[in-house]
Amino acid sequence: MEFLSEERVRGLLRFEDLIPAMERALADFSAGRIRQPVRSVIAIPEHDGLWGIMPAVCGDVFGIKMVTVYEGNAGRGLPTHQATIELFRSATGEPLVAMDGRLITEMRTAAVTAVATRLLAPQEARRLAILGSGVQARAHAQALRMVRRFDEIHVWSRNPEHARECAEEIGAKAMSAEDAVRGADVVVTVTYTMEPILRGAWLSPHAFVAAVGAIGPKRRELDDEAMRAAVIVDSRAAAEVESGDMLLSGAKIHAELGELLNGHPAPAGRVVFKSLGLAIEDVIAARLVWDRHTEAA
User: Fold this and answer.
1) How far is CA 116 from CA 15, 252, 261, in A?
2) Per-residue pLDDT tens for 130-183?
3) What structural domains does the chain harbor?
């Protein structure tokens, strides 16, 4: 079975194709046209690691992503999130291709936020705040610029030097979390934290918030006041077991993002999109890569 490296994936995957592909995947998921369970996560406590297993079936292909989360890798010069994705032919079960999934995870996550931003953020949005300074901060800055014209981007990180480096790279300004958020039209949180780093008291009444970084029932990025909003999720089933932002605040789900894409009325006022990441997003992104690879062969 052929293996596609991250370098090869990078040459084939573009946000211009990925954002509409994620829109279709989310709509199909909420319409019941996708078969996938909530991801399984196995802890590897002796190395402070997590191993996630994410399968999905979509028409003529099915696939699985196996992803690892090792926060200690940041001090080893290694990515904290690593993954591989395998695709199979639905009709025969034949393996088609395996590929590096780290970049796919990075890009499809930002592309899904772009779908939500295009649908739910104010049309006149001009100020973007990003809380976090890792690969997702950079990917989100790129993807969200494709759906809104931001005049200002503000970045915060618990590490001020990392914030300055990220801001310089993406054309933003580094500042405190509160200063970054106050007056922002769109706020993206991409931190791996146990405690809230976004306070609802800082948010404008019209703000759109994408809560992306915290996955797990005990992790959260938003405080209770920030969660007092219309909450949109990628998956109800996943949010009920994986989202500390939801579980610890007692927030109620307004709708899945795919339901809004399928015609459910969008909420007014402040909106929080809680993104957890779905296997179908990885499978569809990998299918895009595979199709482009075979076309070029």
Assistant:
1) 14, 18, 9
2) 999 999 999 999 999 999 999 999 999 999 999 999 999 999 999 999 999 999
3) 2-104+280-296 (3.30.1780.10), 112-278 (3.40.50.720)
